[in-house]
Amino acid sequence: MNDTVIKIPWAKSVDEKLIHIHDAVKGQKYYCPCCNEQLTFKEGKIKKRHFSHRSDTQCDPESVYHKLAKILICYAVYENSRGNRKITLISKCFGCHGENIKTIPPHFFSSSHEEVSIDNYRCDVVADTQNSRKIAIEIYHTHETDENKKEKLSIPWIELKSETVIENPFLWRCHDFRFRLGFCKDCINHFMDVIRLCDKHKIDRNLYTPLNIPNDKKHNYIADIITCYRCKKNTPVFIHNNGPTDKAPHTICFVRTPKVKKGYLSNTCVHCEAIIGIRYINW
Question: Would the pTM count as exceeding 0.85?
């Protein structure tokens, strides 16, 4: 016997359709999508509307939330595949670490399946896109996805909290993820400003990247923009990221000062040649 009364906002109708609590009709029969027990539709002036299991239910709270979230993910993918709904994906921006909000348009997905084996790991849901790519979707209720699994899965994956999926299956707020680097619009606009400024002053694009990716083996330096303290104009500055320091943008110069007689590499202003400092070279 389970002493906890399980309350959920979703149920199955007699004809097996998923029904949200706001669309439920009093007097109709509704069933748990996980254990198939008949649920009680409750609404009141104080408590929020909800479907409730019996007090003596054998349904386990952790199992029902995890299972319900998987069902709702498949439901969202199905509605998207039919062209009925878009899905909003919220992940962490790799630039500013704020929210990166993307829209998954209708018809992006083609299908989804629960409990699929990938690389000897069991994935909660695997969704197929229209261009035949696979995305693993892991549901996190009380236990996060195993780190080994996250590291070794060969396909892109996202981890979603069961509570957020149950609240809105068309809003995917990533608790963790691994897919192509994503940046918010503000960061993308800033990256373009960096590239335009560097192009204006004939700085070779092969020497730098505006993306802050640690241990990037392709580019020696990460670029950014600051305002020069002397001339008050915008100038590019560079942080050494990987590889030899001598393959550097022409604004990085070797300078000597009375305090540092051996000299050091430093950013200089592209306009007035003021010494910006070493801290941008070695962040």
Answer: no
